[in-house]
Amino acid sequence: MPAVSKGDGMRGLAVFISDIRNCKSKEAEIKRINKELANIRSKFKGDKALDGYSKKKYVCKLLFIFLLGHDIDFGHMEAVNLLSSNRYTEKQIGYLFISVLVNSNSELIRLINNAIKNDLASRNPTFMGLALHCIANVGSREMAEAFAGEIPKILVAGDTMDSVKQSAALCLLRLYRASPDLVPMGDWTSRVVHLLNDQHLGVVTAATSLITTLAQKNPEEFKTSVSLAVSRLSRIVTSASTDLQDYTYYFVPAPWLSVKLLRLLQCYPPPDPAVRGRLTECLETILNKAQEPPKSKKVQHSNAKNAVLFEAISLIIHHDSEPNLLVRACNQLGQFLQHRETNLRYLALESMCTLASSEFSHEAVKTHIDTVINALKTERDVSVRQRAVDLLYAMCDRSNAQQIVAEMLSYLETADYSIREEIVLKVAILAEKYAVDYTWYVDTILNLIRIAGDYVSEEVWYRVIQIVINRDDVQGYAAKTVFEALQAPACHENLVKVGGYILGEFGNLIAGDPRSSPLIQFDLLHSKFHLCSVPTRALLLSTYIKFVNLFPEVKTTIQDVLRSDSQLKNADVELQQRAVEYLRLSSVASTDILATVLEEMPPFPERESSILAKLKKKKGPSTVTDLEEAKRERSVDVNGAPEPAPASASAASTPSPSADLLGLGAAPPAPTGPPPSAGGLLVDVFSDSASAVAPLAPGSEDNFARFVCKNNGVLFENQLLQIGLKSEFRQNLGRMFIFYGNKTSTQFLNFTPTLICADDLQANLNLQTKPVDPTVDGGAQVQQVVNIECVSDFTEAPVLNIQFRYGGTFQNVSVKLPITLNKFFQPTEMASQDFFQRWKQLSNPQQEVQSIFKAKHPMDTEITKAKLLLGRSSDLGQHSLKKLILTLQTLWALASSTPKPPRLDACCVWSRICKLRCTGSRCAQARTLFPRGYVTYCRSSFNPMQAVGLCVLFPCVSATLGDHTAHSTMEHLSTCTSSLGPGRGWDTKGLLTGTTAGLPVQGGPGSMKSRQPVVQSTN
Amino acid sequence: MPLLVLPQIRFILIQNRAGKTRLAKWYMQFDDDEKQKLIEEVHAVVTVRDAKHTNFVEFRNFKIIYRRYAGLYFCICVDVSDNNLAYLEAIHNFVEVLNEYFHNVCELDLVFNFYKVYTVVDEMFLAGEIRETSQTKVLKQLLMLQSLE
């Protein structure tokens, strides 16, 4: 019986450790340590050469001091000296010191490597073991360079001891992980695979880890491991519990090795029929054993047995091809759901979650719904309840959604704070995804806010508004329900937001009922006003102005509220400005104008639910188990960049199929029919005709689209390479700096970036550049300058192809270079007379171009316009709003250089912007961006009626414009509106005078501030 | 493919109830501050759990498989996709070896013989993988090494 006594061998060390343990205070400990350090230092410096034992003892003390958390700045040399000792104990302490205090001191590394080399060559298995463990623990690049060639030889040599083989296998694994380029595959690989047949199960255990890792990267090379692993596994699972002697653990034969073999098999698809039959037998045996009475009552026995069982189930799920096995697995897990061991219940819930995504076992999983719901209610460990929530989410479909959502909601009342937000997101997603009846959806979300308002993130309440606005069958119900919910004496602020928004849009639908008359609605909302935060109050102000339009009878009440000092002189700039603008708007505008400006919000474009995106971000993709998603994850991505998600696949319910009109983020449409002409130009610039170029890196389309409206940023990135861009354009010329960053620590060789222009692009776009240095050092960045000349208009973008060698492998990456026509657009200053003169000249039939093409989706003008407007910003976030505006500016630039139809679109877009402004974005940046839009729009507007619409809003913006601009814009407005004639009943002159007179109204503490963000700050 | 670049086991920790570290074995590069932070975090998540709870805790992007023996917590941090029960029993296997080797192991054995504990760990776990699972084989090897002193 091996037993060791306290610190035998090194009495001094034991005494020192005792001293430290007896220290009463931190100070005493530090004092004792300093004393010891001084002692050791003097011993190391002393004239007398230390013997091996003393050296070992002092080095070991230093190590102990280091492990207590103190810095050690000497003793490394003595530790290295110990490596060349002939005594095992001295060598061991030396290697331990080196492994724990890794030091990149190059002088020492050379000495260490030398000692390791000697030990590896010593043929003494103990010394070889120590050396290999040291390499495996340190695993530095220097060591890989020195020993990556040697270790495979040791591993496969016939005369190597088994224990050395074990260490060598894992040592090689460590080096391969750290520096795969330094461990080239070779003759040894096939011999390593055959270690799966080794007599010694310890060798097989170590080798299986190595093979699993290598097989992930080189599946072809290690394909033969599948049949070997299956036969090994088969021998283990069919063996009697005593056959494997040392490797039987509590009556379970080689449990860890079985787990490793099953994991190795998960690197591959289901094997050929012959092997597959044998594997299926193994898996059945494992499932059968789970049903047998236990051979021991000890938990170790059941744990070891179930470790193998769960891994077998993972493999069955991974293959996802044997319905029989899948259903058996599901039944087995079903039994575990009620097991008395918490661990097993937890693991069964977790494992079932993945089973729920298989089409073969989805129904079988659903039969356990009651048990899972019970787990949610009774489990003591929050992590188990969380798994139950995950499983309910995974097993949810149309048939059980109502029940599951109801259970989750009721659990939410008592749920742990740590998981509330996630449950809220899940409930919101399920309610939307499986809503047959949207009244149920609205009820669910309002309940959600009532129960866990604090955990309802913006995405959730934005989404309910998006859905209510898009579905007119639910609007009346939504208005009625929020109205009732708001009656509660204390309601959550998120409810006020939703209520404010919905009543502002659809309050009219319930105004017929005297119990919810306009005045009652207003009073109800306003009773919450003072308790709310600034953003909510801002939203409510927008609701009030919408009420002015919906209910003329409450206009004076609302004006009184807006006029009160608490609004008009509010210290908050946003609130003050809204009050001023809305008051002004309500007093100067006619009902017609109000109706136009404050019209109902247009439908939001359908796309992936922002909530789903949030949940994915929160939990990582693996926990959002959708059938498609599970499949998608499995596909291996060669370029290392994330796969672009299909535009709206598996997204939340999409009542009508529609595409994002701008097509900025969408996959390129298949090239169809003739090239679209000017009529479709707006769309053309953004669409891709990728068919003509080499295969592009995944994700590059997305990146490309992001560069349409910006000039700098990261164009491409994978595990090896990052490509950054900086570009500037002036008139027809441009210059682009491309930065290639080597993210690895290894040199790129033969690095050659090439610019490829398709044939017709060559004539229109002139690109000039110099070749770059063919080697890029690890961690270094090289720069390439491209001079660009736009000769004529073009649609396709050039492609940047990069080829280089990394380690032993050839890399080839293609990305589209974001040089688009809009980069060369120029604004033109033009007086209105000149403009109209020119406009009127465009009357020849050949100056108007029209082309007819088949739309891919049903079209509706209003929806189209709305999409243009809200194409990328329906979640109303600051960032996306800014992006929207930038996009619109580009559109505008396009519009001013093209004939009628696109321009009309852009005009429409701008007027929509005004509206967005009115309906409650709290985006401050937007405020600084709008005036420029107004001005541009007003100056060249050809539709007097729209110009009039702007007149009304003019006072709101004029405050943020410079005097000169305001004046010229006003003049132009005057020209436009005068052409309306008396029939429209507009006293334009009076209106405009009123506008100027209105300017000084902005008093109060915020007024200076509100003048400051002027037009220039567009970027 | 997280398995490729990362070891299965990120680290092994043995801590007592007061949070004193009795063994820390790292299989990934962390700097010293990060190690200290990890040690404290692990202690915080593990010690609040009671016996009715599972032996698994989600931890950052990993999970901790742990088991308590008297006043000592043995924790193994692995990838979330790893086999919980296999590592739970790997801990027990390790503890049984320590118990045999130190003849009824107690916390003080680990303190005074810290340099030997590293040897035991290296025999059973290497490069973040399970190296040897046979108690007989490990103990035979340890006994042989002991005789070399």
TrEMBL record, chain A:
Compositional bias of kind Polar residues: 1009-1019
Record GO terms (molecular function): clathrin adaptor activity; protein kinase binding
Binding residues annotated for a 1,2-diacyl-sn-glycero-3-phospho-(1D-myo-inositol-3,4,5-trisphosphate), in chain numbering: R11, G12, K43, Y53, K57, Y58, V59, C60, K61
Pfam families on file: Adaptin_N, Alpha_adaptin_C, Alpha_adaptinC2
GO-annotated cellular components: AP-2 adaptor complex
Function: Component of the adaptor protein complex 2 (AP-2). Adaptor protein complexes function in protein transport via transport vesicles in different membrane traffic pathways. Adaptor protein complexes are vesicle coat components and appear to be involved in cargo selection and vesicle formation. AP-2 is involved in clathrin-dependent endocytosis in which cargo proteins are incorporated into vesicles surrounded by clathrin (clathrin-coated vesicles, CCVs) which are destined for fusion with the early endosome.
Protein name per Swiss-Prot or TrEMBL: AP-2 complex subunit alpha
Name of the gene: Ap2a2
TrEMBL record, chain B:
Recorded family membership: Belongs to the adaptor complexes small subunit family.
Keyword Nucleotide-binding on entry: no
A cellular component annotation (GO) from this entry: AP-2 adaptor complex
Oligomeric and partner information: Adaptor protein complex 2 (AP-2) is a heterotetramer composed of two large adaptins (alpha-type subunit AP2A1 or AP2A2 and beta-type subunit AP2B1), a medium adaptin (mu-type subunit AP2M1) and a small adaptin (sigma-type subunit AP2S1). Interacts with CCDC32; the interaction is direct and mediates association of CCDC32 with adaptor protein complex 2 (AP-2).
Compartments where located: Cell membrane; Membrane, Coated pit
InterPro entries (alphabetical): AP_complex_ssu (IPR016635), AP_mu_sigma_su (IPR022775), APS2 (IPR027156), Clathrin_sm-chain_CS (IPR000804), Longin-like_dom_sf (IPR011012)
Membrane topology, as annotated: Peripheral membrane protein
Species name: Heterocephalus glaber (Naked mole rat)
Domain named AP complex mu/sigma subunit: residues: 8-148
One Gene Ontology biological process: intracellular protein transport
Pfam family, one: Clat_adaptor_s
Protein keywords: Cell membrane, Coated pit, Endocytosis, Membrane, Protein transport, Transport
CDD domains documented for this protein: AP2_sigma
Coiled coil (residue ranges): none
GO molecular function: clathrin adaptor activity
SUPFAM superfamilies from the UniProt entry: SNARE-like
Name of this protein: AP complex subunit sigma
Location (main, coarse): membrane
Encoding gene (name): Ap2s1
Domain of life: Eukaryota
